[in-house]
Design goal:
The radius of gyration is 16 Å and the shape is globular. The chain starts with a helix and ends with a strand. It has one helix at about 5-15, and strands spanning about 30-40, 45-55, 60-70, 75-95, 95-110, 115-130, 135-145, 150-160, 165-175, 180-189. The protein is about 5% helix and about 70% strand. It has one domain: Porin. It has a 10-stranded antiparallel beta barrel with strand order 1-2-3-4-5-6-7-8-9-10. The chain is mainly beta and about 190 residues long.
Length: about 190
């Protein structure tokens, strides 16, 4: 059986590219592309992902993501993941929101001719704020349970808006065994 800790760590890297918005209005509708790179207990991995979110009314949003990556463990471990969920956000003031979300997570890991499919969920809670119209900052606590493995970590990120709807972001996520950096490009609608 594959090491579930390695598979869980892959998910942690994706968290930093979710749940961001534009302007001082709360917009939770976007599409984006991401590159993830990190290590799990000093074992490198990298991958690419796509993400999307759509606002439903004033405070609720739906989101989904898909990623495909590789953990450099000798012959390599290919990991494919998708998540789908919903979230809630509430303004703290006109420049900051409290945000929480829950998602179903599915991971497929393959090494040589062995493969494993894992299911679980994630819960995230944190803050997203815009000190300037062109700059967004966020910080989250992340909990994930896949099969019987649980992990709690954190993520922080920054996003630069070079137009009111187009932005680049960078994020960092980690826990005891994981460090991950994500770079992404996003269009809000």
């Amino acid at each position: 059986m594959l090491n579930k800790k390695l598979v869980i760590a892959t998910f942690i890297s994706i968290i930093s590219c979710s749940v961001l918005a534009k302007g001082d209005e709360s917009s939770y509708s976007y599409i984006g592309l991401a590159y993830q790179n990190g290590d799990v207990s000093d074992i490198d991995y990298d991958g690419f992902g796509v993400m999307a979110s759509v606002a439903l009314g004033e405070s609720v949003f739906l989101f989904a993501g898909y990623s495909d990556g590789e953990i450099d463990l000798g012959p390599g471990v290919d990991v494919t993941q998708y998540d789908i969920g919903f979230g809630f956000h509430a303004p703290i003031n006109n420049r900051m929101d409290f945000v929480t979300s829950i998602a179903y997570v599915n991971q497929d890991a393959e090494i040589m001719n062995l493969s494993e499919n894992l299911d679980g969920y994630s819960i995230n809670a944190g803050f997203r704020g815009k000190p300037r119209d062109f700059l967004e900052l966020n910080a989250f606590i992340n909990f994930v349970e896949i099969e019987d493995e649980r992990d709690t970590g954190f993520s922080v990120g920054a996003r630069y808006f070079f137009t009111p709807v187009a932005s680049f972001g960078v994020g960092y996520a980690g826990n005891d065994d994981v460090e991950a950096v994500t770079f992404d490009a996003r269009l809000d609608y």
